[in-house]
Predict the structure of ABC transporter permease.
Amino acid sequence: MKVIATIAAKEFIDGFRHRWLVFASLIFALLSLAVTFLGPAIGGSFALPQLPTTISALATLAAFIIPLIAILLGHDAFVGEQEGGTLLLLLSYPISRWQLLLGKALGQGAILTATVVIGFGITMIALIGLQVAGVVELLAAFGVFMLAASLLAWAFLLLSYCVSLLVSSKGRALVVSALLWFVLVLLYDMVLLSLIVAEANGGIIRGLILFNPVDLFRLVNLLFVGDVSVSGVLSLITNNSISVPLMWASFGLWIVALLGIGHWLFKRKAI
């Protein structure tokens, strides 16, 4: 555990030194504040934002931005070090590949979690100050939001690790990771909508939704705040009794599965 903690601490310090923590936190804070307070004004209303509407808007925003930030952070975690010759040097020390993988994931995952808490926490504090809702209600809603956002970030971070362990250059890692982002964030729901139009089996569609961490993230938040304005593919879940613990378990399964796949790829990677 000491070796893993040392690697994680190094990754976190490197991320802080390279301004990842400041950069991502600033992006999340500015965008979340803009969506929360400028969104109603664009619609011609100057009333204080409502909590369900705010969480719904933030979930939609975060579903696009968080996976992209995670991919940018992790796509060169292994192939970049291999190109620079430092990966071989690291493995010459008494460090197992599993320890290196887990240490990197914990360190860079901590960076992503910190950026989520800082960036969206600023919006939460502003809403508490304006007394948009009860303090307990706001803390609970944003607590669920930040936890789900962190899990989403971890899922895409580990997904980018798998890509980084498969390809031979940083450029290819970025392209493949960006393609996966496009498929899971944008194309996936379009395909599901096509299945709905084709009147495919609702159970199959709901199952496919549960296998996408982006939709899982949005659903967990929308169901928690009781947003009734959901439409499209997400309405298939919100209009039917699907266990919320099952959604959280699916999130956990994504993390565990991607860690396992990453370890399997790393063990078979020629350095």
Summary: The mean pLDDT is 83. Residues 2-267 form one domain.
